[in-house]
Amino acid sequence: MHRARGLDPGPGRRPAGHADPAADPRGVGPGRHDARPHRRADHERVIDRVGFAADRRVVLDPFQVAAIDALDAGRSVLVAAPTGSGKTLVAEYAIDAALARGTKAFYTTPLKALSNQKFTDFCAHYGSDRVGLLTGDHSIRGEAPIVVMTTEVLRNMVYADSATLDNLGVVVLDEVHYLQDRFRGPVWEEVIVHLDHAVPLVCLSATVANAREVADWITSVRGATDAVVEEARPVALRNWYLVGERGRDACTLLPTFVGDGEPGQPNPEAQRLTRRPPGGAPRAVRGRLRTPTRDEVVALLAESGLLPAIVFVFSRAGCDQAVEHARAAAVSLTSPEERAEIRRIAAAHTASLADDEATVLGVASWQDALEHGIAAHHAGLVPPLKEAVEAAFTAGLVKVVFATETLALGVNMPARTVVIEKLTKFTGERHEFLTPGEYTQLTGRAGRRGIDTVGNAVVLWSPFVHFDQVASVAARGSEALVSAFRPTYNMAANLVARYDRATAHHLLGQSFAQFRADRDVVTLERQLAAARDRLARARSGAGAPGGSAAPSPGARGAERAAVARALRALEPGDVVLLGRRATRNVVVGRDGRRDGDRVVLIDPGGDVRRLGPDDFAEAPVAVARITLPEPYAPKNAAFRRAVADAARRARVRAGAGPGALRPGDRAGAARARDRAAAAAAAVTRAEKDVARLERRIRARGSSLTRQFDQVLALLESWGYVEDWDLTVAGTLLARLSTEQDLLLAEALREGWLAGLGPAELAAVASCCTYERRGPDAGMPGPPVRWPSSRVADAARRLERRWRDLAAAEDDLHLPGTRPPDPGLTPAVYEWASGERLAEVLGDELTAGDFVRHVRQLIDLLRQIGEVSPDPGVRDAARAAVTACHRGVVATASRVGVA
């Protein structure tokens, strides 16, 4: 039986149980564990595995058995496995075991929608009376044996030392790979570091390349943690490339890889079809090929038996347009019986919408498309419509969903086929290529376990992305998980409230970011030593003589050193001329098995050669440069042929004639100049390498501690911390969990919100939750139509204080707080004043976006209603919550739609 509270908090005091960090090399922290593997004394197997599996009608996979073994041994576990592989089963075993021991279980997710879904699932399995839900929208049975919550709720409990943490037996952190999220990632690390270490964790993650490193970090922080990694998908994936040709109605569907379409050798047929002709002119390719239309894609998938499918479009407008075009073309993919069942599902999910809301939301046209098996899925849809789409698609009734990438973030909607329209997407600031990890996340929805023997991933031809780039992204798989941890103002206030300065610094050093940085320093130190050695050799050789017709042994040694330096100067893609015929050879790498001066080349025949300093009579010089094909595969014959072809077409630099590198035919001054230039270049490169590595090592040394001290300096200068004690304002800040925590704390302590009515307060608070997205983000918005002079005055004060804060952050080299955005104030004021949805929405604001923003605003208003020092502001905030939580907003917050 565990009491899952941290150490005794207290401003300026060392909490009970803390030793001096300097006196204990293992470090200290709440509930410290020796990081060596061990079995928790009070853990033993309490669940019959056979009965557990039989109850769920499954046969445990080997990775599930391994994870359960770790839990039965009392260890925490990180389970990294592909989508749909059965990670949740491990979590359910841990929950059952906790209940059997008479303790509680928490299950956290990053999203309210996921928490609602898991709450509904657990209620069905365990019984409603045994399951609770805690999110910004709901507080249902918070003291139940099983409580589902968002990760932020657990983090706030830990900092508040909540009694709800009493008797906690296990915590499941779902989607733990969210710790790399730029804005919310630190929350996961705060929970892992600060939660009572006696409580085992079950961390569930998508497949990441460094799962064992993450587990090593958790072990160093909390005690023994096993990494259980399953890389095999539950349903095999076949990759395809879809190409349209001008003048032909038909499209060609090609395997991306040779064989069965799994990652391997890129399909040479697809390479030939999309290869640029000699001279590299892209217009010829663009003129011959085209991107298949969405109607063609749907028709081909239907004819090929590849439905149901999710088509990722990366644009809300594109998703809606795709549905409109499909209906305009009279596309229908359902039977009369299926349409009747879809009508039932749609009615159940939209029953609580008022008639005027249904009209504004376009429910009639939405349902028409849904009944014919076509739908959109994106953040612009209100939750009742999105949930109806998910239910109909999961039931196999809807056949094609055009979706943005948000569908891949935890939504349980597997399909037979996933289509990716293009490998670039707009991030809100610029267009970027999909990373291999993002590709893996999207294609994780391809293949329904127990239904499909294979899932399919289809990428459409684009004039802006070469086929080899498609193959490279598809082949590379998962990426390493990185930390987004950084000290925030709220985090700093809570560290001051709970720990002494030395312990706070120590706990910051326990972050995953610092763990990785410390490991990197060891590697960087080795690289720095090697770089300094190279610099010494380069400086020594820079003045070496050479060039005599019959060199002495010493001169030959100097000449060999010059050749070695020149070889080190060559980079992959450089073209050099070799032999009496001056044939073009391309550098593709280095021979790591030798002294490092040997280069790997591909000759005109496509053969691989490995040459070192002794193979050259004089220093080789690059005469041209090519771009190596992707994916990089020098062992592949097609790759080598492509390299040789590119070398033949390369334009040799002026002055580099056929005899430029012919052994033995250049002597004297010309050869000396070449050697001197190569030696000088080697010295310059070595000096830059040394300086770069020294900078990187300095940057990694306790960088988080330095940043925390800068945050603390700002809080001290602004009156939130004094002599490692929180002031009254600091205590207020410690209770505010929002991206603009310090700015809102300023508004509350300065009294800028006093005297505002509920609708006015909601409008001003929206400046701290709303943020314009899209290409115009960051640019000045249109003039604001202020709903009242008091709203305008409070919002302008926020703006002025933000400017002061931005200047202070800039002086201290801290990440900047984003500015308040008043763009939603008129709409929020009208909604909180009781206006209908149709009157509130403007031309650029979708209903789904508005509902999402208002739900975020309600979360913030609830915080204001709890922490404001002004009773009038607290009352106004609570009234604003009631005024905003109505109509379609309230409908969107419901749990358990039938």
Question: Short summary of the structure?
Answer:
Helix 27 (758-765) runs parallel beside helix 28. The strands form 5 sheets. An 8-stranded mixed sheet has the order 4-3-5-2-6-7-1-8, sandwiched between helices.
What features would you describe in this structure?
The chain is an alpha/beta fold. The chain has four domains: 33-233, Rossmann fold; 264-280 and 292-474, Rossmann fold (3-Layer(aba) Sandwich); 536-692, no CATH class; 736-892, Sec63 N-terminal domain-like fold (Orthogonal Bundle). The chain is 45% helix and 12% strand. The protein is built from 33 helices and 25 strands. An eight-stranded mixed β-sheet has the order 4-3-5-2-6-7-1-8, with helices on both faces. Strands 9, 10, 11, 12, 13, 14, 15 and 18 form an eight-stranded mixed β-sheet that branches. Strand 16 (424-426) and strand 17 (431-433) form a beta hairpin. Helix 12 (336-350) packs antiparallel against helix 15 (383-394) and helix 20 packs antiparallel against helix 23 (668-700). The radius of gyration is 31 Å and the shape is globular. The chain starts with 48 loop residues before the first helix and ends in a 6-residue tail after the last helix.
